[in-house]
Every structure is written in C-alpha cells, then in structure tokens.
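Ticket #4471: structure output looks truncated?

Reporter: J.K.
Steps to reproduce: submitted the chain below (333 residues) through the standard prediction queue, then opened the result file.
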Amino acid sequence: MDIKDTLVASLLATSASFAVGPFVTWNGADDDQQIHTGLDNGTETSGYWYTYGDDAAGGQSSFSCVTDAIDPPFITCTNATLDICKGFCGSAVLSKGSYTGQPFIGVGFNVVSEASSPDYNPGAGDATAWDGLCITYVSDIDLRLELGLGPIVDSTISYANPAVTLPAEKTLGAKPPYKNKGKKVVVSWSDFKQPTSYTGTVKFDGEQAAKQLVAVKFILQADPGEYSFNICAVGPKDGTCPEKCGIPSSEVGIKIARGGVAAMAVLNGRMLGFTGVKSTATAEVLNSLGQVVVKSAIEGDATTLNLSYLDAGIYLVRVVGKSTNFTNKIMLK
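Returned output as attached by the reporter:
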C-alpha cells in the first residue's frame, strides 16, 4: 500500500458514521447561514463559512467584512453579508509582510464537521455523488476553487490541492451591493487538477479527492492590494445555482423536457404550489437528512400541498413526471 492509499484508508477509517443526504444548493439570497452538504456527522457544525490567511507564513493579509464591528467573522459576518450582498462577500486585503510568495486569503466551509474532542480536525466525507460543483460568484480577481483534504493530507502534498480557476468577474464597485451580478460556473470533479509545478510523489486528482473531501475553499491570491468578492451560491454539479447573484432558490426554474417552460416549486407561506407542471407528476419533500417527509401525486399547477405541520428549516422539493423533472430548495420559517 503506497502513501496515498494509507492516507485514504486512515481518513475513511476514522470518519464518523453518519446518514448521507442530498447536498442542498446554498443560495445567499435565501438568507440561510449554513450550507447543508448532506454529509454532516450529526453535530450540525458543517457548512459554516470561515476565513484564513497567510499570517502563519509571515504574511499580513486579512479579510474585511461588510462592517468591522462584527467579530468573529466566520460566524456573525455571514448573517450581515447575506442581508447586503445576498451571499458571503467582503474584501481581501492582501499584504506580503515577510511572506515570500504572493499574499492570499481563503474562505471556505467544511463538508462534514469537526471531530469529537480532543481531536477537532474536520472529518472527511465521500462527495462523489455531487459529480462536481456549481458556483455563482463575482470577484475582482481570479478565484482558486480548491478541494481541501484536511491538515494531514494537505501538508503531505505540500498544499498542492486539486483546484480549478474561476475567472475574475469584476464587482464594479468597492462596496456591496455590487453592480455586477456575477455569473454561474459548473465544474466536474475531473476538472480539478494539482498544480503542474507540483513534483511530489503523492498525487490526487479531482475524483480521488472527492472521495475524502474535507472542505471546499475559495482562495484569492494576487499582488498586494484590496479586492472585493461575493460567493452567492454553491451546490452540487446539477444543483440549482442561479445564473446571477441575488436570485432566490424559489425563483430558479429548471426547464422541463418538453415545451421549454420553466417549472418550479413556489412557496407561499406554508402552502407549496407549482408552476410549469403541465401533467400528472409525483412531488416529494425531503429534509436535510434526505428523508422523504411529504410525498404526493400532483395534477399539474392546480395542486397545492399544505406544509404547516413541518418544522422550520431547509427542505428539498423534487418533482418527477412524464414531462417534468426538477428539484428546488425551499425554506420554511
């Protein structure tokens, strides 16, 4: 067994046992602080935005939130930015200090959760079923979308993690809300590659990394300066990431197979309705654990479902029929 196989076996053996559910596309316009990856180990500590920088290597880069009065940024900053940016936004203030490379800051979220005390390193999960990621964003500079593999593996491969580049989509304004509403990008696991400059013996491609994924990260690295960005949505490859920032999930329609009419689930209070559904179909409502809590036949747009008895939270609505197949996320308050 080579070094990489040993690392994989060790991580998978120590990962907690947990129920696997769907990765519900996170959309900042839905005003939800947590990203529901479907891989949480039951502690509900996954899916929260955090930031990090080059300070451990002598750099002086920092993350500037919408308001400097908010602390710590990885918890309450998210709530503030959702109101203003409809996403996780801010400025990367890049400064070299004594760091010899290009300065950087990173933002990301764990896909599983922290392990139990005394080992608080985040756990690894198998995200193969996601097939990749969809992202809606805006950024003054290129973003490096990187697959985090945890402290042990990351250091073993000299932090040459599989990554893809998201081209700059300038904010056109120093302060949110940004004039440019961004764009959507969809990437497959096979698109993630280690840097060509990496000469180490332990190799990881995107598909291998997805099997033991610890974190999804966005790195802003450039010459010293201040650069604005906004991560508006992130989800699985076939997720419902909007084409532009600021569009809530309830308004993100998916084309039905025939006729090209946008079909979607529409929530009005606790009543769930449908548009663009022209024939009999089956509707399912799934909770964050992937459990079907409501299942009903629907007769086109005429049907409504009463969800008043469900707990508040994020749910996935899946509609399948002869000429309809789509998934939407809803939030019950």
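Triage note (M.O.): checked the attachment and the full token line is present. The longest helix spans residues 73-85.
Status: closed, working as intended.
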